[in-house]
Amino acid sequence: MNDTTIKTPYFMIDEQKLVANLDKAKQLKELSGVKLVLALKCFSTWGVFDIIKPYLDGTTSSGPYEVKLGHETFGGETHAYSVGYSEQDVLDVADVCDKMIFNSQSQLAAYRHLVEGKASIGLRLNPGVSYAGQDLADPARAFSRLGVQANHIQADALASVEGVMFHMNCENKDVDAFITLLDSISEQFGQYLDAMSWVSLGGGVFFTWPGYDIPKLAAALKAFSDKHGVQLYLEPGEAIITKTTDLVVTVVDIVDNHKKTAIVDSATEAHRLDTLIYDEPASILEADEQGEHEYVIGSCSCLAGDQFCETRFNEPLNIGQRLHILDSAGYTMVKLNWFNGLRMPSVYCKRGNGDIEKLNEFDYNDFKRSLSQWSVS
Ligand SMILES: Cc1ncc(COP(=O)(O)O)c(C=O)c1O
């Protein structure tokens, strides 16, 4: 299959780039003894799990269907966490997970009896410190509902669990900043951690970023696990799939209203939602910031402010031309939606040997089915 003949929009996951990230994950594991579970909330395109499985220890999840998916398609250790479980969720999940992490002491008290003897039970703690660029994504933000605050811990609740989970980083590329958080956790919660058998430090540690000091991170993790006598886990999502995937689109129109806008056959609101939520412009492979032709790369949704980015090109853009929107794997395919009835991007993988494999494609029936399956009689 030749990628120029694939109908846009589509995602192309590059195996070689994925394996480059996974090699760094392997190095981190070997140096530190940490176990790594893939955060399915970030990336759950299970069609490429065969590539990832040899490198990671399992999956972690944020809702009951992710737990089931991790168990079915990835295997290894399946960690289940949810900000809020219903009783039915707990019943469904307890049989397929290895670790069940509750977000609050009230959920722990209500459901522990349903999990005992089936999975190792944990509790999420909130360290009150974090590294997160935006308040929206900051687990330690004011009035946070994510985990138990240090001054709310009931000693008997903690005594009844085998492990705890912290998550306080978002795209943290600074190893020293991470170590400062680790020290704070050790200082605040050390007395409890010493009694645990496992501790998860969550996701958001960007150890695959170019130049990241993996040996320094590994040494800090190893010292922490030795000090408290615990098996450590990290829950990487973005770090695993960063810079592996393009969203390939076609320019369908060019309009001019004081600025030129190239409208493409995709929309951030439907296919790359975090561009919109976090106001983080995308990057385009074909662009050149020194180029003399400036364009807004506009979405084909009806939302007035829906655009991928503003950037420059060496040559004027043409209708029919393809553009590659870079780094489009994390928190994209898991958030795809049918807004405006746009064509859903298909999903492909470019294998290490150059072969291109189709993982998914969608059609009008998928759109229709997502809205109703039956009509009133
Ligand atoms: C509890 C938890 N674990 C892991 C992750 C994955 O984070 P990332 O994709 O930034 O590594 C998140 C992201 O929000 C999270 O909330």
From TrEMBL:
Highest taxon in the source lineage: Bacteria
Main location: cytoplasm
Cofactor(s) listed: pyridoxal 5'-phosphate
Keyword Aminoacyl-tRNA synthetase belongs to the record: no
EC number: 4.1.1.96
Annotated keywords: Cytoplasm, Decarboxylase, Lyase, Polyamine biosynthesis, Pyridoxal phosphate, Spermidine biosynthesis
InterPro entries: Ala_racemase/Decarboxylase_C, Nsp_de-COase, PLP-binding_barrel
SUPFAM superfamilies: Alanine racemase C-terminal domain-like (SSF50621), PLP-binding barrel (SSF51419)
Localization (cell): Cytoplasm
Catalytic reaction(s) noted: carboxyspermidine + H(+) = spermidine + CO2; carboxynorspermidine + H(+) = norspermidine + CO2
A GO term for molecular function: lyase activity
Keyword Cytoplasm: yes
Function: Catalyzes the decarboxylation of carboxynorspermidine and carboxyspermidine.
Family label: Belongs to the Orn/Lys/Arg decarboxylase class-II family. NspC subfamily.
Subunit structure: Homodimer.
Protein name: Carboxynorspermidine/carboxyspermidine decarboxylase
Natural source organism: Vibrio ulleungensis
Name of the coding gene: nspC
